[in-house]
Protein: Trimeric intracellular cation channel family protein
Amino acid sequence: MIGEMLQGLDYFGTAVFAVTGALMADRKRMDMMGFLILATVTAIGGGTIRDLLLDRPVFWLTQWEYLVIAAVTAIVTFYVSKPFHQRANWLPWADAVGLAAFCVIGTQIALSMDANPMIAVMMGIMTAAFGGLIRDVLAGEPPLLLHREIYASAALVGGIVYVLFAHWLDWSIAAVILGFLVTLAVRGLGIRYHWHLPSADR
Amino acid sequence: MIGEMLQGLDYFGTAVFAVTGALMADRKRMDMMGFLILATVTAIGGGTIRDLLLDRPVFWLTQWEYLVIAAVTAIVTFYVSKPFHQRANWLPWADAVGLAAFCVIGTQIALSMDANPMIAVMMGIMTAAFGGLIRDVLAGEPPLLLHREIYASAALVGGIVYVLFAHWLDWSIAAVILGFLVTLAVRGLGIRYHWHLPSADR
Amino acid sequence: MIGEMLQGLDYFGTAVFAVTGALMADRKRMDMMGFLILATVTAIGGGTIRDLLLDRPVFWLTQWEYLVIAAVTAIVTFYVSKPFHQRANWLPWADAVGLAAFCVIGTQIALSMDANPMIAVMMGIMTAAFGGLIRDVLAGEPPLLLHREIYASAALVGGIVYVLFAHWLDWSIAAVILGFLVTLAVRGLGIRYHWHLPSADR
Structure:
């Protein structure tokens, strides 16, 4: 039940991340292939890097519904990018849901492969945030992830909560629910109140 | 026989892609190591990503003649880049041959590892086009692949033709020949008639 | 004994590369997460790519002290970046020590996995230099590695020396010491006398 909800949120996150990739392609005046490639890389890039690092089969080789979701989303966004722009104020919130889902899933997968807790938290962050990092690099933009935004930090906090419950308290349902909600809440507060991490003092 | 021709075209494609990397290094005023690295990454980058994703041994670890071809090409281009520039109108056509050969080989390898048809087509596109993508990113250029060019799309069409014949009709010789020729033709028509994919309507 | 010294130099190199990543984050006005991510990627990126290509377990999954070194270095640099800037003239020299250590270790690991000598030298270069390459790409800077600097070339020469002694003369202690010293010397001379590789003649 929790597993199925998480699965649904994972699909949702895939579509949302694909939208952010496609909108970037739109901003950069790319063509349809640019939309497809940038949307797909944004949606599956983080999980792909996680799987390569953990030496497990890349998830979308068998679960290719993720590719279909990303491709369909890219095509839809290509033809209807105007409404996406007009209503873009919901987009960061949808992105936050994807961030939270991907973070929990990445941490969970790493723990299930007996990664140590620190590695597991890292894998959650990478799953959630490195797709967007690749998107920004391919588009020639300064990576959002590295600049003044509560983004990876939300995944960091949520991942720690997940590991705390799943690894040390051995309470996996609470880990999924709380890991997800805490990531979402931290990111949501960041969006709502324009929270930033400080830059270095000079 | 067909296998040997494809092998030859693969070597040719490796050299051509290395030339495009080296010419980019030249444009960016890089030094000899820049030529070597950019040429090599362009020539073997796509196949490397394919092999990592499919979890098979990276091809140039054992078939290191590819490294030699890329390195020699880089050095030659370093010393004789002027003629390459003067005669650069043949370069997109040579590049198209490389694109077609790499596409067929990438699709073939993926199918031989029992990847599903959609994945196989993706692997063909990545083998053919992601070396150039890395080249552009390292050089700080907007990736050609993502912009208004029939490039990855040619590999997409050729890959579908390959899969159609090899996977569904089980006729592998036709698959190689037609996959190659269709990729070459689509890309060639794109070059000749300046075909572009549309950007999103705004 | 030699092994322990090399291990110590490896830790030192990890910290120094993390400093260069953190200083880049500082220059680009990134936040704390930017410092952490860029420092870590610079410090462990080269070795990670090496391990993925050689299909061996990524080293920091088990030896996570490397992550701790990178993270602590990033945080320290975040709070005390001023002195790093003021005394930055020692930094290229410290970086040269890291380059030499990483080069020897990368070459050694590749040879221990029966890679052929050319591949082993490549792996040394990648271990030593690709972390910095990723740093520059993420920061949107022209990669230092590809431009007019004796950098990868120092690792190339040192790697050849290493392979010469370890693979052909079977004298591994001399290989470590000479591979390290030659890389350091070539890079050091490059820094001291502003040696550059030539760009292509135009």
